[in-house]
Specification:
Blueprint (H helix, E strand, L loop, with lengths): L2 H8 L2 H6 L3 H16 L7 H12 L4 H11 L8 E9 L3 E9 L2 H14 L3 E2 L9 E10 L5 H8 L6 E5 L2 E7 L3 H10 L4 E10 L7 H15 L4 E6 L4
Antiparallel strand pairs: 1-2, 1-3, 2-8, 4-6, 4-7, 5-6
Length: 236
């Protein structure tokens, strides 16, 4: 198994649960997808992907439809995706993905979390290079030969395909998302969910006390409504 498998296995699911204002985040994804490509999922691949994720998160269909309708309103604020980079205590690199309709508010909040927890908010490019930007797809493990699929999907950019509980996960570079999504749809393979992750190239082991220092900062960041995802180089 490769780094994507180990990363997936090692992530604490409690972190997404702790961040799990899932419906709010999916609602923002819907707004951004509709503003970018329109409200018709058939013609908007990004919106199709968000709707699949909403279904996987058990978001009611009515909520999804309301979010799409709201997103078409010209008075609905658009969200800008902004990446923040910095260091937690003990040299742990942190990468923060946000979606905000008020960048000044978000910058002030993120900076305050770093300051209060003895971290340092960095400049653009200061830690992003330490993470590989990947895309992933979760599909049902029904009548699929993983080894055969891995060989076939290499041509579309897939780097790792492995079983994850009852499903199959496909990992590839960020830029391969569209090609893999299209090929899965062409083959009639149901995409249960999809998304993007940033996998640290190197992780750092800390003592229990040091971990607590980093966790304090991570928890503050993850509680912020503008924060979508947080990645770091601390071993979990």
């Amino acid at each position: 198994m490769g780094r994507a498998f180990e990363f997936r296995k090692g992530r604490k699911m409690k972190r997404w649960a702790a961040m799990a204002k899932a419906f709010t985040r999916i609602g923002k994804d819907i707004v951004m997808a509709v503003k970018e490509g329109g409200p018709n999922p058939e013609a908007n691949s990004r919106l199709r992907a968000v709707i699949q994720n909403a279904k996987a998160a058990n978001m009611p269909k009515d909520n999804v439809e309301r979010a799409i309708k709201k997103a078409t309103d010209k008075d609905t604020a658009n969200y800008k995706e902004v990446l923040f980079e910095g260091y937690a205590p003990h040299g742990i690199a942190i990468l923060i993905e946000t979606a905000t309709d008020n960048n000044n508010r978000t910058v002030a909040n993120i900076r305050s979390y770093f300051n209060k927890c003895n971290g340092t908010l960095g400049t653009q490019g200061s830690v992003e290079f330490m993470f590989d930007h990947t895309c992933n797809f979760r599909i049902s493990n029904k009548n699929i030969d993983i080894e055969e699929m891995e060989l076939e999907f290499i041509d579309f950019g897939a780097e790792e395909i492995f079983a994850d509980e009852e499903d199959i996960l496909i990992y590839a570079p960020f830029e391969s998302f569209g090609a893999i999504q299209k090929e899965l749809e062409n083959r009639g393979i149901e995409i249960l969910s999809s998304g993007f992750e940033r996998i640290p190239q190197i992780i750092k082991e800390l003592t229990e006390t040091q971990v607590a220092d980093v966790e304090k900062l991570l928890e503050k960041i993850e509680e912020d409504d503008d924060v979508m995802n947080v990645y770091h180089t601390m071993e979990e």
